[in-house]
Amino acid sequence: MPHDEYRTIDFFTEDALPVPRVAPAEAELIAAEHLGITARAQSLGSQQDANFLLHTGDGTPAAVLKIANPAFGAVEIEAQDAAADLIASACPELRIATVLRHPDGSPRRTTVDTGNGPAVARLLRYLPGGTLSGPRHLSPGTVAAMGAIAGKVSVALRDFRHPGLDRVLQWDPRHADRVVAKLAGHIDEPDRRTAVRTATAEAWAHIHELAAALPSQAVHLDLTDDNLVRCPGSRPPMPDGIIDFGDVTTSWAVGELAVSLSSMLHHDGIEPHHVLPAVRAFHAVRPLSAEEAEAVWPLVVLRGAVLVASGQHQAAVDEDNVYATAALDHEWRIFEQATSLPLPVMIRLIKDATGTTALPARTAPADTPVRPLLRHADRPERPLLRDADTPERPLLRVPDAPERPLLRDLAADDITLLDLSTDADSMDHGAWTDAGTEARLVASALAEGAAAVATRYARARLTGTPALSAVSPATVPTGTDLWLGRDVVVQAPAAGKVLAAAPGHVELAYGAQVLSLSFPRTVLPVVTAGATVRAGEDITHLASGAAVHVALRDADGPAAPRLVRPEYAAGWLALTADPAPLLGLPAEPDRTPEKELLDRRAAAFATVQGHYYADPPRIERGWRHHLLSTDGRSYLDIVNNVTPLGHAHPRVEQAVSRQLRRLNTNSRFHYASVVEFTERLAALLPDPLDTVFLVNSGSEAVDLGLRLAIGASGLHDVVALREAYHGWTYASDAVSTSLQDNPNALATRPSWVHTVDSPNSYRGRHRGPDAVRYAPEAVAVIDELAAAGRPAGAFIGETFYGNAGGVPLPDGYLAQVYAAVRRHGGLAVADEVQVGYGRLGHWFWGFEQQQVVPDIVCVAKAMGNGHPLGAVITSKAVADRYRDQGYFFSSTGGSPVSSVVGLTVLDTLRDEDLQGSAARVGGHLKTRLEALAYRHGIIGAVHGSGLYLGLELVRNRTDLEPATEETAELCDRMLDLGVIVQPTGDHLNILKIKPPLCIDTTAADFFADMLDLALTQLGHAR
Q1: DSSP for 790-859?
Q2: HSE on the CB side for 705, CA within 13 Å?
Q3: How far apart (Å, rounded) are the C-alpha atoms in residues 661 and 668?
Q4: Residue 624: which region, alpha, beta or left (left: phi > 0; alpha: psi -120 to 50)?
Q5: Backbone angles phi, psi at 444, to 5 degrees
Q6: Percentage of residues in the chain with pLDDT exceeding 90?
Q7: For residue 589, what pLDDT is reported?
Q8: pLDDT tens digit string along 244-276?
Q9: Closest of 314, 309, 308 to residue 335, by C-alpha
Q10: Among candidate residues 226, 206, 209, the one with its CA nearest the CA of residue 346
Q11: What is the pTM of this model?
Q12: Cα separation, 343 vs 572, whole angstroms
């Protein structure tokens, strides 16, 4: 082998690395003459190499022809191919773009002449599926999979050695400072050039302190969205393939993760906190040391800076390189996102994610040079730290006790603490939506004699929370706000240097921290910058009515905003401390970590009672059509048909409170409310439905309804619709056939339950106009049962197909089926649990849409606006037959409180015209959703009426293949955008849209807008 083949690249000796000038026709010639394959060549993009996808005569992809940049020597190419083979062997679950080989095992590789000089050309395995490139939003599962792959590659390459790894690449983070210094001049915009240089200097300084403790090894160093191939057909896109080993080298092992993280940051809707699942996944496969965890984000910043500088340089020297020029915008976005937060904030979040927070990183002395670096083989082995090794530590920091209180002669008892969190009673009745609430509460406390009013550190405030927002608001305070009710002297809590003094602002050294005071700009401090003050020395004098902000931060850390977003709060709070002890107040206690609360739930609360979302927000307050988390975020509630009046309706609250003060007992006692309520309820139904049973839930209502039908008819068989859910009791579960609620539903039905086809006119056996065939077929089943000596005692079905996503029954369906079951002595049972009570807008009851009158009506959910309340309404004749089975009694069904709640809900439905609102707002929303179908091919249909709607998602509109995984991904993305919505239907591919009936058009438009945004970000826009 000629000596030249042992050369490796040194980027700093190259003027430029333009892509080899090879046309597709030339590529086809190279493939045919040198590599033994006749194919059509399609040019693929690359930063520095020439890549072509080779197609056989029938268009099938056969291989990738890769012509390396002439600057790369043969030994480097050999190292790349060896690394690919090693990973393929170590990770058989991954698809790897290995070099194709001749029958004798030799690689299909050659050297060819290009316009830029001799270059190595070879054939690589083609991986179908496509890469993760492009702007599409990356869901948490995809992000985690990217991190896991990076971890697997790192483990596989840990002991790999090859002379072709000894190269100096511009992408090696060990050289990032030099690369930026060399190339930043190609960034034309002065502001951007300065930003890149500044960020590089800061990040490199941080890495400088850690470098000696960072292990080096062989790395792929380009496990980006461009080089991770999705598993064909995976939804959402999940990577399982790796291409492009062109950057294989020896470098810091943690750089493998940093490179992958940086590539995520340009995707739609991705910001720094979204990459944490990848960090956790990498750490689970290849644990990070404390030093590596601390180095991750500075390396992400350096990668972003190198991408920007290199991209601008490549575009300048290789103007025809469309791949390079097209990447400039997203490379800048990567840099912007990487630098959008101070380094210490993201470092803390990553250390929290890896459980290395309490482990001090070993840093080099400030004067220790970063180079020369130890090679991996020379580095002593150190045990890698795992989560289990990490001790628990407090979440919130408390400063040292002051020698003097910050506010002279002001005792803790004189200060009123102002709680603005979800737990605060002061936030009741939607007070958080009023911009003047904070000022009103402060004024009230001061008027009642408080010497001062203080807010609480680190506890999320609701008063700055917008009701509708696609991005979480800044709600977590990093300090304390004070309002004074009398004149106060602010004094030094301990001896220290005055770091800053100006009108309205003072900064004072307080141990290893900085005490920051902000007050009206009309007030001057009585100290000067640079002076040293004693404990108790005057700082400034504040008059009654003044407001002051008090904050403590690390002396070497960045100044924190007064309020920060909850996703980043842990990072910011780690750089601050609670000022409360300086005021003589107790420090804010640590909040229970959400994972701990979920673990306690799983331990004590049967896990079959699941919860929405894998990582759910903690919801502790609601108001109208909004749900509020303990992080202070408001979510639009699109799923809660349990509360038709809206959450925390004052009339319901007052009615319950008033009744509980008087009496709550069982319905065997004589009191007026149960009479008034049942009269009102019966009056809402047509004759002969005049008699009411009160229970506690929809399941109980259906169970009782079936018992009434069977008892009155004397017939024990029941006919039910498929794809329906009716409840969890024995009888209601027996007639439930939803495969999502019970995958074995149809196979495990008792012998007395007989099912008929779901009359789904959209995706059932009979579609569109052919849906009229469902009713005769159901009638035939009923007649066949009677002919076999087993006539049905009851037919039960939802009157508007709620569980299937709000699909209306075909016109005349219930009339024919009801007539058939009655003809054989049975009764018609209508399940109105989900769709009744005005939700359909145009009809109060679903059966009205079908122009029929059932024999028995079961209702619940909406009746109590969240209070457990259900009812069965039937005729007196049917009700009286129940006596044949004994007596009926429900301890709290029809209790005084339940009856009062039921009356209040009916009054409010009427007084606020919520049925009319369902028709108006629901009609507006349906029009908006139907318009979205023109933009997003995944929307197959918009079902429903009023505010019981279903948005059905399909992979194509021909065979209606359900978009189940896409729907789940969409629901998760909608949560991130501030909307709670969930799937329904046997395929879980329908968004169930059944919000509180008080929802207004503003909120409906927000939902439609966020749906449009999410579908676009997830790649479904046409």
Answers
A1: --EEEEEEESSBTTTTSBPPPTTHHHHHHHHHHHTT-EEEEE-TTTTTTTTSS-SSHHHHTT---SEEEE
A2: 36
A3: 20
A4: left
A5: -65, -45
A6: 85
A7: 85
A8: 999 999 999 999 999 999 999 999 999 999 999
A9: 308
A10: 206
A11: 0.94
A12: 10
